Amino acid sequence: MSPTAERESLSRLRNERLGRTVERCVQAHPFYRRRFADLGLNAGDIRTTDDLEKLPLTRKAEYMADPEQFRLRAEDMPDASLEERTLWNVAYTTGTTSGRPSPFFNTTHDQYTIMLQARRCAKVEGLRHTDVMANLIPLPPMPTGGFLVVNRTAEAFGIPVMNALTGARNPHYPIHRGLDDAIDAVAATNPSVLWGIPSFMRRFFRRARERNVAFPRARMAITTGEPVSDALQLEFIEQLAAFGCDDPQLRLRYSFTEMQGGMVQSHNGAILQHVTPEIYFLEVVDPDTGRRMPEGQEGALALTHLHRRGTVMLRYLVGDVVTLKLETCPQSGVLGERLLQRPRRTDALVKVKGMLVNPALIFEKLAEDRGIVEFQLAVRKEDAGDPDSPDVLEVRIEADAAEHSRLSASLPELVQKLVMVRPQIRFTAPGEIYEPTKTLKARRLIDQRGESQPR
Fold first, then answer.
1. Could you list the residue range(s) of the whole structural domain that residue 432 is in?
2. CA 359/CA 379 separation, integer angstroms
């Protein structure tokens, strides 16, 4: 099939599925049923992906306020199949501003589709049917998309998976493993693929090396849930090589719960690729007007579900700024949107002392320093009781005592060159910044100013 014919075929399939999804939304979706009525629109007005611009963007706050309103009502779909109306599972988003996880409902229809998505992602990433996978994502107190996707991928691809089951321990449910126990349990299975959140994988690999524990079959690491700096990518490659791998492979994923998976890489350093474009429509928009940006221009990422029957979203703002281009990956041969630059959060910048600070610049440099075990930025008031006192940018560091003098001397000037603000340095006790048995991810930025923060 020629590239033009392939694009036309994808467009037809997308439009066909979108039309059916919109019909279901007008029929049985509380939120969009009201939205269409308020706008004076009917299902026939949205038949193509271009027609989506008739709809306003859906904000995360709208979903978080009442997630049940984003769920198709089975009782309002009398012609729905058993697969479309049966609840299979519920995933939860984390890291919301309210602190309360939001449920994301999957029907059997959705589960089967997601398994096909997982299989395709695994194939593009280069998984093998002889692989054994280790799930290093901490066991959460609710089923998150990040934890579920590892086991789902193993199921769909047909390979065994070992779950490390680290995470916050609960005396009522003594199922979680400590870091050393998890290392021993993973080593006993001799996995070839290790999949986890970058901050925990970094701690896992370093501790394994300290104990001289090896994973002789390990050939690939897959990361999800957090950005991965160039320095950390290099560290992961070096760790796999130290375990004995001749050709270490690293795959970064750009994932979020609302996509029940994400964009993947076909080889080391590859551009992230959307490999299931017939299931999710991605567009880059002006977050204020909802206008779609020309291909190749930067804007906010909006997601539309084309083929779902549980939780359904149209033009949902993910919360990241991206640049996309629809093209065929030269390695995998898959047509789909490709990320032309690293995604960044729309709220990534923070104002300190009147200066807009990009924490990512600081994180990148801190991650390069192998003498630093963990790091965190905190923004606070000089006097916590006085909202008008000056801002303080504090760099919190966990490091061996032998590194303190060097870091105290070098970091203030380094950070000031990066962001034009001179920080204070505070050294923390082990586990104060990130303790993998207590939290899923390392929290890299803390703003302690409350309502006093400048807008």
1. 350-452
2. 11
Please report which confidence band the pLDDT of residue 445 belongs to, taking 50, 70 and 90 as the band edges: very high
Give residues with Cβ within 8 angstroms of 62, minimum separation 6.
31
Residue 451: pLDDT over 50: no
Q: Which amino acid is at 264?
A: V
Q: What is the pLDDT of residues 121-139, one digit of tens each?
A: 999 999 999 999 999 998 8
C-alpha–C-alpha distance, residues 397 and 405, integer Å: 12
Burial 5-19 (b: 16+ CB within 10 A, else e): eeeeeeeeebbebbb
The span from the CA of 355 to the CA of 323, in Å, is: 26
> How does pLDDT run across 36-69, given as a tens digit for each residue?
999 999 999 999 999 999 999 999 889 989 999 9
* CA–CA dist 288, 302 (Å, integer): 12
Q: For the whole model, what pTM was predicted? A: 0.83
Q: Which of 345, 365, 397 is the last residue of a domain?
A: 345
Q: Is residue 93 part of a domain?
A: no
Residue 204 · residue 182 · CB < 8 Å = yes
Q: Determine the pLDDT at residue 435.
A: 83
Indicate if 257 and 117 belong to the same structural domain. Answer: yes
Residues 124 and 251 in one domain: yes
Distance, in Å, from the CA atom of 360 to the CA atom of 348, rounded to the nearest integer, reads 8
Determine the Cα–Cα distance for residues 135 and 164; give it in Å rounded to an integer: 6
Tokens linked to 180: 């050393």
Residues 163 and 196 grouped into a single domain? yes
User: Among 345, 366, 387, which residue terminates a domain?
Assistant: 345
